[in-house]
Amino acid sequence: MNQLLQGVDVYLIGIMGAGKSTIGKILARKLNYRFFDTDILIERVAGKKIADIFAAEGEEYFRDLETQILKEVSAYRSSAIATGGGIIQKPINWSYLRQGLIVWLDVDLEILKKRLSKDQNRPLAGKLESLLEKRYPLYSQADMHIKCSSNQTPKQVADSIIARIPAMIMNKK
Ligand SMILES: Nc1ncnc2c1ncn2[C@@H]1O[C@H](COP(=O)(O)OP(=O)(O)O)[C@@H](O)[C@H]1O
Ligand SMILES: O=C(O)C1=C[C@@H](OP(=O)(O)O)[C@@H](O)[C@H](O)C1
Ligand SMILES: [Mg+2]
């Protein structure tokens, strides 16, 4: 698999709660890749939780940090990157995402609502439905569309991504 992959990076995109962070970590382990999570790196650089960055500095500041971090991680090969749900909003971010394979984790709204109901660190969770509607056409521009059902475990989702990667790479050539 790794020979087939040739170090091509895998970027996970999708709305908050889709499983990018959870599945990205598993994917990296299975592929023997590095794992980056843009949100974790933003929190590390800012020295505070995402909710606190939004509250103190605002969304624009967060988005600028997000682009800076994305640019930095895009310099590495052989990595799986869990992005934040809003990364697809800025056109410049696509120039970094396009350096690898872009995988969209698509999860039904009812499942997302359940998953996010107790989370305190997603300041935009209240706008889930309108964000999903607005962003859907952007997520649709991914190289791979993974429709996740409610009974699939994160490991199963990671395996279905891995199974489709070789064909994706062939298509990109
Ligand atoms: N396939 C799955 N099945 C069940 N729960 C999941 C699945 N993927 C993610 N989760 C759970 O949903 C929540 C959000 O997942 P997370 O990976 O943080 O999503 P994202 O990074 O896309 O916002 C977490 O509590 C995680 O454990
Ligand atoms: O959808 C969004 O705009 C956001 C999603 C979050 O990441 P997850 O998608 O990992 O929850 C995080 O980047 C921030 O709260 C903003
Ligand atoms: Mg995440």
TrEMBL record:
Magnesium as a keyword of this entry, yes or no, is yes
Q: Which family does it belong to?
A: Belongs to the shikimate kinase family.
Reaction catalysis annotation: shikimate + ATP = 3-phosphoshikimate + ADP + H(+)
- What does this gene product do? Catalyzes the specific phosphorylation of the 3-hydroxyl group of shikimic acid using ATP as a cosubstrate.
Cofactors, names only: Mg(2+)
Name the positions where Mg(2+) binds.
S21
Q: Which residues are listed for substrate binding in this entry?
A: D39, R63, G85, R135
Q: How does this chain assemble?
A: Monomer.
Q: Which residues form the signal peptide?
A: none
**This chain belongs to which protein, by name?**
Shikimate kinase
Cell inner membrane is among the record's keywords: no
Please state what class of enzyme this protein is. transferase
Residues holding ATP: G17, A18, G19, K20, S21, T22, R122, Q152
Specify the domain of life of the species encoding this protein.
Answer: Bacteria
Q: How is the cofactor bound?
A: Binds 1 Mg(2+) ion per subunit.
Q: Under which pathway is this protein filed?
A: Metabolic intermediate biosynthesis; chorismate biosynthesis; chorismate from D-erythrose 4-phosphate and phosphoenolpyruvate: step 5/7
**EC number(s) reported in the record:** 2.7.1.71
Bilayer-crossing regions: none
Q: Kindly state a single biological-process term from the GO annotations of this entry.
A: chorismate biosynthetic process
Instruction: Output a single Gene Ontology CC term carried by this record.
Output: cytosol
**Gene Ontology molecular function, alphabetical:** ATP binding; magnesium ion binding; shikimate kinase activity
List the keywords (alphabetical). Answer: Amino-acid biosynthesis, Aromatic amino acid biosynthesis, ATP-binding, Cytoplasm, Kinase, Magnesium, Metal-binding, Nucleotide-binding, Transferase
Where is it localised? Cytoplasm
- Database matches in Pfam families: SKI
